[in-house]
């Protein structure tokens, strides 16, 4: 490890990179990481609506001590602040228009710069980039190491999307779908527990008007069509890791950590402390 450190002139590698430096070469679908530099991970999470990418991205960011940056949150945060960009954004939202790539990118750049000023050196991006154009712009401000593409079998995904409920009072999201697919023809079964609300929200659950089977299917079709070029963009750079979720969080989380070579990350962190 000391020779590696000397060769790459790492003064203070992040715990994550330190782990990689001391481990044997990855043998799983994990793409080769770029030359280690003195910073934390810069990852992207891709996945269709309903796959649970926010959940896994949040968990990983707390494990790796990097911020989870979701573009939806950036928009909401900006809307609640003041300034030229906020005014511009309010106007667009009030007119019911889509927020452009340029504005999303301004918000992201602002967030990354603010993070850098606070000493942040990594992130997990969620919901960005959506287009090759955005990916190209992103290349100018970040050095993406890895793109995790989360996948879920279509029938389960559809059922999950249709199980989405929102509390009409507190606005929190829940999922009433209880997935229990039996294994068939060599295909493993899958079960996923519902995400039920606390008692006080239970009677106030509503289904979004656009969560009908027809609309969900169309949303997924559009997602696949639009996401393909972005996936291909990162695949051709050897940065894309496809991960098929084997079930709910209890089954998927350990497998995801394994695929990312992070399965003993917490133990190593504790041992190093
Ligand atoms: Zn509620």
Provide structural commentary.
Helices cover 47% and strands 14% of the residues. It contains twelve helices and ten strands. With 273 residues, the chain is α/β, with parallel strands linked by helices. Strand 7 and strand 8 form a beta hairpin. It has a domain of 190 residues: Rossmann fold (3-Layer(aba) Sandwich). The strands form three sheets. The protein has a five-stranded parallel beta sheet, sandwiched between helices. It binds zinc ion. The site of zinc ion (ZN) has 6 residues, from loops.
| Largest beta-sheet characterization | 5 strands, parallel
Task: Fill in the CATH topology of the domain at 24-67 and 120-265.
Answer: Rossmann fold
Q: What is the CATH class name of the domain at 24-67 and 120-265? A: Alpha Beta
Unreliably modeled segments:
1-28
What distance lies between the first and last C-alpha atoms, to the nearest angstrom? 17 Å
Radius of gyration: 20 Å
Portion of residues in beta strands equals 5-15%
Helix-strand topology string: HHEHEHHHEHEHEEEEHEHEHH
Instruction: Please identify, by name, the CATH architecture of the domain at 24-67 and 120-265.
Output: 3-Layer(aba) Sandwich
- Helix % is 40-55%
CATH fourth-tier homologous superfamily of the domain at 24-67 and 120-265? P-loop containing nucleotide triphosphate hydrolases
Overall spatial form: globular
By secondary-structure content and strand pairing, the structural class works out as alpha/beta
- Enumerate the distinct ligands: zinc ion
Question: How do the strands of the widest beta sheet line up side by side?
Answer: 2-3-1-4-10
Quick one: how many beta strands?
Answer: 10
Mean pLDDT rating: 85
- With helices defined by DSSP (H or I, 4 residues minimum), what is the helix count? 12
């Amino acid at each position: 490890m000391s020779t590696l450190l000397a060769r790459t002139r790492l003064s203070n590698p992040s715990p994550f990179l330190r782990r990689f430096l001391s481990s044997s070469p990855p043998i799983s679908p994990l793409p080769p990481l770029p030359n280690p530099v003195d910073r934390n991970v810069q990852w992207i999470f891709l996945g269709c609506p309903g796959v649970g990418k926010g959940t896994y991205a949040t968990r990983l960011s707390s494990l790796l001590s990097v911020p989870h940056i979701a573009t939806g949150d950036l928009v909401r945060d900006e809307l609640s602040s003041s300034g030229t960009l906020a005014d511009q954004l309010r106007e667009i939202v009030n007119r019911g228009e889509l927020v452009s790539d340029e504005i999303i990118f301004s918000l992201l750049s602002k967030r990354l710069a603010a993070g850098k000023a606070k000493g942040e050196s990594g992130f997990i991006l969620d919901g960005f980039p959506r287009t090759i154009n955005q990916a190209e712009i992103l290349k100018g401000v970040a050095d993406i190491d890895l793109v995790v593409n989360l996948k879920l079998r279509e029938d389960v995904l559809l059922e999950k999307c249709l199980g989405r409920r929102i509390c009409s009072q507190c606005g929190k999201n829940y999922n009433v779908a209880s997935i229990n697919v039996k294994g068939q023809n060599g295909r493993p079964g899958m079960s996923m527990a519902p995400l039920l609300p606390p008692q006080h929200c239970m009677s106030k659950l509503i289904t979004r008007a656009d969560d009908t089977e027809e609309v969900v299917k169309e949303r997924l079709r559009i997602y696949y069509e639009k996401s393909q070029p972005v996936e291909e963009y990162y695949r051709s750079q050897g940065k894309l890791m496809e991960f098929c979720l084997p079930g709910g969080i209890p089954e998927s989380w350990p497998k995801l950590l394994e695929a990312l070579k992070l399965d003993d990350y917490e133990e190593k962190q504790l041992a190093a402390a």
